[in-house]
Amino acid sequence: MNIFPPALERLIDAFASLPGVGGKSAQRMAFHILSLPDGEAEAFAEAIKSAKREVHRCSVCQNLTDSEICPVCESPKRDKSTICVVSDPKDLIAMERSHEYNGSYHVLHGVISPMNHVGPEDITVRELLARVGTGEVKEVIMATNPDTEGEATAMYISRLLKPLGIKVSRIAYGIPVGSNLEFADEATLFRALEGRREM
Asked: Which 3 state secondary structure label does DSSP give 169?
């Protein structure tokens, strides 16, 4: 026997299907939506519909945009000879927050993961190779996550790019600022040592 009306159950299920949202959080969100005035609830629904309708991938870098080309690709101040490859748009935002990188990007929209049935054809590797094939690109920086899938994806793309005479580099990673060495695992310490630079 359902405690809630079917429409409310469907709303809870919809929220629960979002990544990182459990059953209780989904219930809280659904109840919050029901408590909103009609105008606010309709504005919320319209925001979802308009984002789905208007947002698509940039024809150059595959980042999300509402125009043909995203602002990063459109900017004449960006170094088009360098491409930073990231797994998804959230990673691009993280890179931009550093204010240290002034090149262009390429968003893969996933990583190679045989366990999840995601192969190279399911991410935007083809589009990256087409960009590199123009001859304008001198370096590709692999900025996928330092986990098994991220490493495998970086290695796969690197092997495809090397024969093209393109410099392929990997972002360094290691001990986070503000943390202690005693809490770092062996792999992190190894990467920190490997990525060391002269002072």
From this structure: strand
- What pLDDT score does 181 carry? 65
In angstroms, the Cα distances linking 117 to 10, 85, 97, 122, 183 are 28, 21, 32, 9, 34
CATH class of residue range 64-173:
alpha beta
Confirm or reject CATH 1.10.8.420 for domain 6-54, answering yes or no. Answer: yes
Angle at 169 between CA 163 and CA 170, to 5 degrees: 130
Residue carrying structure tokens 């098994």: 148
pLDDT of residue 1: 55
Residues of the chain falling short of pLDDT 50: none
* CA nearest to 132, candidates 161, 173, 169, 163: 161
Which two three-digit tokens encode residue 56?
């698509």
pTM above 0.90, yes or no: no
Element (H, E) at 144: none
